Amino acid sequence: MIRTEEMLLNVGPQHPSTHGVFRIVLKIDGETIIEAQPVIGYLHRGTEKLAENLQYTQIIPYTDRMDYLAAMTNNYVICHAVETMMNLEIPERAEYLRVLVMELGRIASHLVWFGTYLLDIGAMSPFLYAFREREAIIGLLNEISGARLTFNYMRIGGVKWDAPEGWIEKIREFVPYMREQLSGYHDLVSGNEIFLNRVKGVGLYSKEEALDYSLSGANLRCTGISWDLRKDESYSIYDRFSFDVPAFDSGDAWARYQCRMAEIEESLKIVEQAVEQFPENGEIMAKVPKIIKPPKGEAYVRIESPRGEIGCYIASEGKKEPYRLKFRRPSFYNLQILPKLLVGENISNLITILGGIDIVLGEVDG
Length: 366
What we know:
Layout lengths: L5 E6 L11 E7 L2 E8 L7 H5 L4 H9 L6 H16 L5 H30 L3 H21 L8 E2 L2 E2 L7 H24 L2 H7 L7 H6 L5 H4 L7 H4 L20 H25 L19 E9 L2 E9 L7 E5 L1 H5 L3 H5 L7 H8 L3 H5 L1
Antiparallel strand pairs: 1-2, 2-3, 4-5, 6-7, 7-8
Helix pairs in contact: 2-3, 3-4, 4-5, 4-11, 4-14, 5-6, 6-11
């Protein structure tokens, strides 16, 4: 009989497969994980406290830096919260532009996840292909916002700029191209025996556990719960589009992979419909005062980001700065189940499970 000793092992914070400055302290017996303790806070910026001394429009760039792979949805949630408090009516053209950039951002975010997840597991080619397609999306978002990652495009009452000439046509051409590439991803990866052996039955949890841990996004839908705020608590103009909410019931890393790949297809459906319905002209900003001062009171709004439910709570005293601001960040909540999933697992499955959750550390520590 082989005798082993318990050992403490640090994974991160400087490690490519931790997807940011994240540290996890493992207690292992041989190759089996006995205990796992996540350590966060290396990236902490204090966004919510800083916001108390900022005007509402000044807070928007800070949201870019929380989930820096989905800056458009972060921009939107703060604007949506303020607009809800002020009872603003957003121009139709601005709403379509918002949906287009958010859904393109969702696809780009899932492409980063797909590429880096396969890289974690040991496949190089999918990463290169995914980033090729992501670069096309980043080019489109750069063209409309002037930035490549931290877009700062949304404004309270609308958007910063109108679509440049020919931009809508470029998106129309991108949709069939992306569908063709997505089919190629499935040919390359989804039926690959090595990949399937790494993800099937790994990181299992039930729908009851998903609800107990307040999981959202693909981490919830992988247990068979078809819940998406774009459809179930529709906001903006999402009720104008026909799309499905992919859900798979095996509750493992394979189901989470299937969810996100299917979500890319559904986002393409939304983008395609938004392009066809796009108004030929119209305003891109509502009439708002130069200094935004929501009335005294409080509001909480929530939307569907690529990682799940992101919420924004604002308490206002009727001043140009919020009295209190709080974000519900999906990565922070989704990460809570990690220690439970790792206990009893072989250490080789650590990165498969962690990568499958799809965290962004700016959102965990923000």
